[in-house]
Design a protein that fits this description.
This protein is an alpha/beta fold. It has one domain: HUPs (Rossmann fold, 3-Layer(aba) Sandwich), CATH 3.40.50. About 35% of the residues lie in helices and about 25% in strands. It contains 4 helices and 7 strands. Helix 1 packs parallel to helix 2 and helix 3 crosses helix 4. The longest helix has 22 residues. The N and C termini lie far apart (about 40 Å).
Amino acid sequence: MPERKRSIVICAEDTPAAADACAWAVREAYREGDVLHLAYVIPSLKPPMEVYHGLPGTSYSFSSPGKHNEDERISAAKSAIEARFLPILKEKMVPYELHLYAERHDVTPTRVGEIILNCVEERDATLVVLASHNKPTDRDQFVGKVGSVAQYITKHCKRPLAIIPPIINA
């Protein structure tokens, strides 16, 4: 009987730590027939501006002035994720799907975690892989710690979870 195709969800960001986590998943968890799902939440959407006047019953809503360029930000995020992760995936010809979720620019870590866990459940993931901390500065400062999104996912994930520390001095 053929084995069931597994789905592995990678929490993707355009950071070296997230790429380290993906490389670990390809090296240690991936087996032929699996599909890796790269889940990335893009904080790009700006809410419309609300203006309320002092008179009862008068309020107006309109788009904020200026250009927001959400489409360009989403396209740039897609290109950045593919540039960082495709070399890792192509080395072993790993099939993947990229899942981009556009959220408000002020999205909270809790909301990012909820979106990622939704992706995990929708894909019936066998494994969830994320970096312990995806902050691109002072990587060794976070060894042994997890970021706010990873902390949320750790507390709420109902699937097997691998939290990968960044490679120091890589």
